[in-house]
Records
---
Amino acid sequence: MSYFLRKTQAAIDVNALVDNYHYISTLAPKSNTIAVVKADGYGHDATIVAKALSQFVDIFAVGFIDEALTLRHDGIKNTILILEGPFQQSDFTIASENDFILMLHSDYQIDWLMTLDKPFDKDIWLKVDTGMNRLGFSIQRIREVIAQLAGTPQQFVLCSHFSSSEQVNSTKPLEQLTLLNDLVKEFTCKFSMANSAGIFNFPASHGDYTRLGLALYGISPTENNALTARLKPVMTLQANIIALHQVEMGETVGYGDTWCAERTSQIATVAIGYADGYPRNAKSGTPVYIRGQIAPMAGRVSMDMITIDVTDIEGVVIGDTVELWGKNINIDCVASNSDTINYELLTRVSKRVPKVALVKS
Ligand SMILES: Cc1ncc(COP(=O)(O)O)c(C=O)c1O
């Protein structure tokens, strides 16, 4: 048998990424679609994502300044919105020098802004809490903050975040939007409300800027919305078979002896485990894709390996590629088998898994 390398990787389909961006932008044609690339581009490698989109996107968004500086270091020149704003007063200087937009959400950040030695010359975003109760000024406090900023040169954009825009039948998203809209009318300013599910489910929330995260990566942010059918999964997580075993009826597989063969079975060991970001909680039966067919996982996930039952699949050999999620295995299926959500699975793909950009010309 010939020697082969560990081929565990997250293949990043750059064409799918660009197609998703263009498609979703057409759903909110009057808005500027901000591409959210925080958490290393939702685990896809923020630099790969930003490079692929830089010619189409005006603004990228990240969680905090270090993430933005990494993009600058890697040559990304677009404006970057810092969703959690400054963590210290000197972040205002970094923002000025690097074309970062700061989101201000708390009084301590306003104090920093008002006491800078050199006046801050960039526009800012102000976060308003309309019901998520996580980040942002209260409706009452935002009016005072805006009054406080009256003498400063900045223009501001009002921003808020939905707590449940994936719930099409909930009244909460529109209640939140009404609260923000009232402020926008009062202050005649620009606004940003919609995340991915907001873009698909609540067109009235599109506003001046949408903040597109999950759907950019080709994953539906909401159920029962036909518009999501055109999304193309960007990441395919895959690994190779490194061993094959026959186990007899009554024998167990893996730690804890949780899976027991009910017939003579062919078990393939695949080079991916929880240290790579495949969820430790994935239950036996979680589907994987091999040789054009679905096979179930058998037994517990180990640190570096999983075991799958390939008894019903013809011709499996060492070296075969196994897809864990991507074009053929819906990540939501893995998430529901692991008591988690797609966002967590994507962002937990670990450093030791190479992210490989695939571009078709
Ligand atoms: C403030 C903010 N805006 C936008 C997004 C993007 O959301 P989504 O990935 O649901 O599109 C997030 C994601 O967590 C966020 O925290």
Note: Residues 36, 83, 161, 195-197, 211-214, 221 surround pyridoxal-5'-phosphate (CB under 6 Å).
---
Amino acid sequence: MTVPIAKLSFWGVRGSTPTVDPATSRYGGNTPCLELIAPDGTQIILDCGTGLRMLGSRWAAPNGGKTPETHILVTHYHWDHIQGIPFFSPLYVENNEFHFYSFRSKFLGRDSLKQVFEAQMALPYFPVDMSAMSAKRKFKEVDGGDSFNVGENKITARWLNHPQGCLGFRIETPAGTVAYATDNEPGDAKLDESLRELAAGADIFINDAQFTPEQLETTRKGWGHSSWLEGAKVARQMGAKTLVLFHHDPDSTDRMLDSILRQAREEFDSVFAASEGMVITLGAPGDRVQAHMPGARTALRREAQFHAKVCGVTEGGKDFEEETMVRDISLQGALISLKHLPRLQSELQVTMEAPGTDGLQAMNLRGYVVRIDAAPEKGHVAVGVVFTD
Ligand SMILES: [Zn+2]
Ligand SMILES: [Zn+2]
């Protein structure tokens, strides 16, 4: 007997606007887009932020192409949740079929989502209009409170507290339940209750964590977003198993998010900060919820044998310290003192010696000169390089 497993991939996790900044690159800069493959092969996409383009470029037709149907749930019409649509290449392939679900906006009336897409692709905002999209597209209106089935999965929509409205979705699959509740501000009793209904007993509860608890009480009150602390409270109260902090502020650097995650883990046992490329599987034997991070150091890796002392925290939350050997390291750049003055934006070949138990090893790298400063030693310059290969 095969075990039902669902796979949830995070293609975009940033809120409000994409960020292309080295300081935010580890968690990622694309705006909301998630993909859930249910055990029956049903493909569900949550939101169409800029992460959707990445999903399109690594497209694998659902069910091995036998039933190339994809269901796309759109929470609301703010830019960060729709901007990936024109750049989603599977929409330009005739055989594909997409079922879009969203609500009727009081600002747009009937066929709101269809109108949003058409307006977004109207000339002169985009070089081609919707007629260039040859895939089949169907639009379905859903309202807060609606439930419907897609394959053997049950989807429930609930209103959340956000300017111009936003839907949260709860997806129950045979492998487990995912609640997706982004763009939501606590403080409206009725809508807080909808959020709790979405989260109740969910295996994965994805919640808006754009602001810090302090911002939420002061400068960002009324902006339509939440904090890690509110997410942790709801998760604990409603018995959600794992909380995923989502919709990171574009001004939150990786270091700020590390600190937010650390604080959230003190409040609630099982928390992850959504990270671009992260995949969570549901229903696997043993651990029901397993998170996998993308290979972040596949480039520029060099074998080494450096002695090291490592201090950290175990899975069970205990501090540890251990002496060990670094087996390989990935390198981004270095500061090198030189008597010669290399040209800015030129290449340097750098060979470093790595001490090892079997004697010295040479580590060869190619660097790209990004800055040149005066060095502390007389007659030298300090050369900043980024390693390219
Ligand atoms: Zn948003
Ligand atoms: Zn929004």
Note: The mean pLDDT is 91.
---
Amino acid sequence: MRRSLACTTLLIAAFAGGAHVRAADDPLALARAGTAAIEARRFGDALAAFTKAAEMEPGDASLCFGAGVAAFMLGKNEVAQARFECALERDPAFLPAATWLADLHYRAGRLADAISVYETAQLRSPKPRDLQPQLDRWRKELELQSRFRDARSEHFVVLFETAADEPLAADVIGRLETAYRRIVNAVGVAPSQRITAVIYTRGQFNDITRLADWSAAAYDGRIRVPVDEASREAGELDRILSHEFVHALVSQVGGRTVPAWINEGLATVLEPAGSGGVEATPARTDKRRAVSQLHGSFVGLSQRDAELAYASSARAVRRLIERRGIDAVVALLEDLGRGTPFARAFQQRLAMRYEDFSASMARGSF
Ligand SMILES: [Zn+2]
């Protein structure tokens, strides 16, 4: 599901706009500061401002909502859930709080909760039909998932459809644990929570994720992996599982504000065979993308643009690791998880200005 932060900040600003601001600790002034912080992607500041404002003005749903959005972006899922629920208690017809809460449940694998939030929202929405397509997709997914079985290991839960897939699930879980050991050892941080992976057929995967054909797998709170003839080839399944595991790790350490080029670059560089193959792509096309243009998800890109984006991302992350060390990159992720704005965290941890880095990578001189 796509939600627009710009649209969200307008909603919060509607509360803060036009009012006379009397003092710095005025809830209106705090709400304005929180809205400005969300617009500037300073989610740590936004969370602090909205939390304080909500304490001073406990009846206001939009203040709870603002705190929820900031916490969600920081990957603080429990705080975000509590804040969205608080917004809905104050104002049960507050649709954005319902859609963000449902999305949060969905990403945590709580599909039935996501559906229930939508069903309640639909009863109160002036345009109940707008929510129907998403609800239909989730109900269909729940119906499929209710047939799934699970296999567990120390760090993973793997969901699969039929008893005949049990050996495959055991194989996947073994490969995930191998990737876990190798990657945690390389980066020096471990996920704090057990990670779920769902095994699909290609048809089920396309149906549920609706991603471009070039997508080998996905991570949206859970690892979703289609297993077909191609992915069962030697090495390919390990590559895919390792790549998606890194996304899970990045999201647990850095929250949801990590630029796509760092997320994809790290996942690619840490693949079992490294990033050599992926980085070779621009040599054929003679094009480079500046990493500052690669902050948003690659999902909507064409295959060719995606190849370029992955190549530029992998090269940038590999060079950062070679020149500054993996610990500096991990420290950057940890800063983002704490709410430090990206450019500041980058300069702090990688000892150069982000614009300078992006420009020298594009020139090939870093
Ligand atoms: Zn990826």
Note: DSSP finds 18 helices and five strands in the chain.
---
Amino acid sequence: MTTTVYVPLDSAAVALGADDVAAAIRREASQRGESVAVVRNGSRGMVWLEPLVEVATPEGRIAYGPVAPSDVPGLFEAGLLAGGGHALHHGPTEEIGFLRRQTRLTFARCGITDPLSLPDYEAHGGLAGLRRAMTLDPAQIVDEVMQSGLRGRGGAGFPTGLKWKTVLGADATQKYIVCNADEGDSGTFADRMIMEGDPFVLVEGMAIAGIATGATRGFVYLRSEYPQAIYIMNRALALARKAGILGDSVLGSGHAFDMEIRVGAGAYVCGEETSLLNSLEGRRGVVRAKPPLPALEGFMGRPTVVNNVISLASIPIILDKGADFYRDFGMGRSRGTIPIQIAGNVKHGGLFEAAFGLTLGEIVDAIGGGTASGRPVKAVQVGGPLGAYFPRSLFDTPFDYEAFAAKDGLIGHAGIVVFDDTADMLKQARFAFEFCAVESCGKCTPCRIGAVRGAETLDKLAAGIEPDRQKALAADLCTTMKFGSLCALGGFTPYPVMSAMTHFPEDFKPAPMAQAAE
Ligand SMILES: Cc1cc2nc3c(=O)[nH]c(=O)nc-3n(C[C@H](O)[C@H](O)[C@H](O)COP(=O)(O)O)c2cc1C
Ligand code: SF4
């Protein structure tokens, strides 16, 4: 009898030694004369347990982790292949609290299937959304997406159905679907995880988007820092083409749709949709003024859907189960589920997909388990480098676009980075200005100049030079950047700066030495 053992091929697992663990398992099995099939799956998203090894048993999959190659002989000795007890044994994977408490819709297959097996994909519900879409008119598909309440997961939270409707209504001989896989936000990895762990769901979502809007070509703009995702996506495209999911007639429907991977060179601003389009066209990654909207004049001046990976990967389940099913999850105007990425100084870092509405406190304390250092949580930055720092006093904020905006914050791509009480919020605020200065595309003055002046101002504050004046100047610069910048890089840098100044005023007092010298 052959036993199936799963060892993730996800970059996080590989960085922690998964390839060596897979090799050690194969070696040990062969030395013992055991028949073992090692499947390289996606990650389950419990990064602190990676490399997480799972063994298929009649009672379901049994989890072990984090496994080092040197643990492998001992694991076999303990009866790994039968799910035997061991210090690294966590019991049935699905029963691990972090997984059990999730609502996995977009990530339903991630970590379960072989990412590059189409039969496995179909056996777990893959292609059902595309097959249903093929029975609908384009306008009906767009309406289904609109009714689902799905909002863009890339950061701005714009209704996906509305964007598609604009592209569908545009009159053009050529339209495009562009998937934004630049994933530049700090603490985020949901796009990477799904591209590595369930690439066909993105292909399926893009094919549906193509059929819905009349676009026949698609691009995935994928950052160069993700070589594993680039490799897996390219393999998946080749397999999908061979199976007729991509090509002149998608699954024999008569709709043409094909797509390719384009690799970005690593500028944060190239995640902004108009910079991305410039980069995709081979130009410098500079922000374009809007209007015209990319939906009307996007790639090569043609109507273009630009959507984040998670927005597009959520489409198949919406089409498969229907708009009502998806919309029933969530709160307020934030419908469906959101893959929250928990990172930074946290005990249980990883990806947690849940309906909107969990409070920040639940996410950090109950799910994340508090800090990895064991020290008190001081601040949590939500939404990437342009997101606000939230103190404990705001931990009752529910994960919802409007609730975060009401507290001068944003959800962004749903990455949260935890800091303990050793964090210096003045340094973090300075870093926000510095980041903006380094990553600015330079097109508009408030961002190009404001970010540099902002960093200088906070340097003077740290040195104790006229501290009150510097604080007022920093706030003034923030107002100019917020209201005068062309895009959200300059426009949102004030969020981390002002939240740090507002919620952690004690860190913005000059050092006693400097005060004395004044
Ligand atoms: C500076 C900057 C960086 C951005 N980076 C990303 C990114 O890495 N990935 C992404 O999907 N959206 C990013 N966005 C948002 C995109 O401009 C755009 O709103 C998004 O791709 C639209 O897709 P969605 O509606 O599915 O979210 C960024 C925006 C700005 C201003
Ligand atoms: S805000 Fe910054 S990144 Fe955005 S257009 Fe202006 S200079 Fe470029």
Note: The first helix runs from residue 11 to 15.
